Amino acid sequence: MSEARVYRKGQVDADITVPPDKSITHRAIMLASLASGTSTIRGFLDSGDCRSTINVMRAMGVEIRENGTTLTVCGNGLRGLRPPAGVLDAGNSGTTVRLVSGILAGQVFEATLTGDSSLSRRPMKRIIEPLRRMGVDVKARDDEWLPLTIRGSGSPVAVEVHSPVASAQVKSCVLLAGLYAQGETVFHEPVVSRDHTERFLSSLGVPIETSGTRTSVRGPVARLPAFDTVVPGDPSSAAYFAALTAMLPGSHLTIRSICVNPTRTGFLTALSKMGVSVSLQDVREVSGEPVAEVHVHGGTLRNITVEPEDIPSLIDEVPLLAVVATRADGVMEIRGAGELRVKESDRLAAITQELKRMGARIVEKTDGLIVIGNTTLRGAEVSSRGDHRIAMSLAIAGSVAEGETTITDAECTGISFPGFWDLLARI
């Protein structure tokens, strides 16, 4: 699919499921690969990014078998990975390259990580510097960009890291390296980011401690036990259909078995503040993660201010939130979102320029956006810029716009949401 055409929708009245969570799938594959014994991952996300993680772990000698939506992973143990025969290709996946870098810190061989042209433009110094402080030999293009060549020491030095950015990928890289270090490895971040790595490691008995924005792990960890886990629905994928429902008064949507980890529900919280009825039912715990049915009712929207401390829990949904803001009363200001400039695209610039083509009144700031509401969007030809989040946000914009919206490079949605276009067409 090179392009997709989207038309205005009426009311939504639907009960849906969305793909499994991408972040949790990545971590489950990696930790199962490091476990002692055979693990089962049920309902994994079969997407481009998660395929990158599977391929990278297989290249280091891990046996991973597939049966429908289930993975069986024969773990090599924490120190049992093997030197790859060639370069490890992370594709478009920042999670793969950054988390695997932490794992490589504890190995005793050299490996090189690379990626596609988009990933090769994403900053890596944020993991290079802490890994070097831990005694790991890391080389990079211009000391910043992929490819990364990492020679693990087998026993990194325990350090205390103060990260200038709130990033679950950076935090996870340091914590995974800390599994192999003698003593306590501590990570501080300015605002709490996603905590899937901490939850997963804790569920496996790893001594993880969290207090506010401070997280630590005490190593060296002798072994990780094998496990059986079920991956819940991805809240970032669910957000697109929750947004569509919110913008169409009288609509109702039920989304089944969604991860409602508090570090991931910032978008739903923002919708609630904007006047949308959002409720969680049958909240339960699945493999250390809270899961629930989410019910959304469309209604009258009013814009809010999104502060820097709100950003980590809705970082993937900021472009989508800008779409919702065009339909709400008042003005939305989004602050502290500069991290979006170093994603698969410069998402602040991308969503600003593409929504303007549709008639939105939106201003791009250095680290955020200002969106003037009560705007009638018009169908237009827009570009995803090869970014799955931008493609899906524009699809939702097209679903409330007048006329036809054509989105080029539409196939990139498969990076995180296989079946997105089919589900959108069915609703």
Kindly summarize this structure in a few lines:
The chain has 427 residues and is of the alpha/beta class.
**What general outline do the C-alpha atoms trace?**
globular
**Main β-sheet, in a few words?**
4 strands, mixed
Count of DSSP H/I helices: 12
What is Rg? Answer: 21 Å
Descriptive report:
The protein is α/β, with parallel strands linked by helices and 427 residues long. 28% of the residues lie in helices and 28% in strands. It is built from twelve helices and 23 strands. The strands form six sheets. A four-stranded mixed β-sheet has the order 2-15-17-16. Strands 4-5-3-14 form a four-stranded mixed β-sheet, with helices on one face. Helix 1 packs parallel to helix 2, helix 3 packs parallel to helix 5 and helix 9 packs parallel to helix 11. The radius of gyration is 21 Å and the shape is globular. The protein starts with a strand and ends with a helix. The model has no long low-confidence stretch (mean pLDDT 97).
Which helices and strands, and how do they pair?
Blueprint: E1 3-7, E2 13-16, H1 22-34, E3 36-42, H2 48-59, E4 63-67, E5 70-76, E6 88-89, H3 94-104, E7 110-114, H4 125-133, E8 137-141, E9 145-151, E10 160-162, H5 168-178, E11 183-188, H6 196-203, E12 208-211, E13 214-219, E14 228-230, H7 235-246, E15 252-259, H8 266-273, E16 277-286, E17 289-297, E18 305-306, H9 318-325, E19 331-334, H10 347-357, E20 361-365, E21 368-372, E22 381-383, H11 388-398, E23 404-408, H12 420-426
Parallel strand pairs: 2-15, 3-14, 6-7, 10-11, 18-19, 22-23
Antiparallel strand pairs: 1-23, 3-5, 4-5, 7-9, 8-9, 11-13, 12-13, 15-17, 16-17, 19-21, 20-21
